[in-house]
Specification:
Blueprint lengths: L7 E6 L2 E6 L3 E2 L2 H17 L4 E5 L5 E2 L1 H16 L3 E5 L3 H9 L2 H4 L1 E3 L2 H6 L3
Parallel strand pairs: 2-4, 3-5, 4-6, 6-7
Antiparallel strand pairs: 1-2
Helix pairs in contact: 1-2
């Protein structure tokens, strides 16, 4: 069986795991499932994980992808972790506002601002 390539770019610096998406469009169901599995592995691997997900370059996000983010957020809270989102393009951020997810997630303009917000 061929090894599937990661849908995420992951960098761990200091105590924060920084994640970026490989894809510009996160709408394919199989890719979203894989992203969810990869994110959960990262969440489960750490004690009190601190994760920054940057949406740099992401142009489209499906509702299933939003559902995956909510699931990851809930699991992180259970593990006393912290999640920050950054670099969300204005069209996608509109969806966050409409669905009130901008109230659930801590969203920052830049990864740098998000990094500074970790406690």
């Amino acid at each position: 069986m061929a090894k599937t390539t990661s849908r995420l770019r992951v960098n761990v610096d200091e105590s924060v795991t920084r994640i970026e998406f490989v894809d510009r469009n996160i709408i394919d169901e199989a890719n979203i499932q894989q992203i969810g599995e990869e994110l959960m592995k990262i969440v489960e691997a750490g004690t009190r994980p601190r994760i920054l997900i940057s949406f740099t370059g992401v142009e489209h996000l499906s509702s299933a992808a939003l559902g995956t983010l909510i699931h990851v957020h809930k699991r992180l809270e259970q593990r006393n972790g912290q999640l920050r989102l950054s670099d969300i393009n204005p069209q996608i951020f509109e969806v966050f506002k409409i669905t009130r997810l901008n109230k659930l997630f801590q969203v920052f303009d830049t990864a740098e601002k998000a990094l500074k917000s970790f406690s």
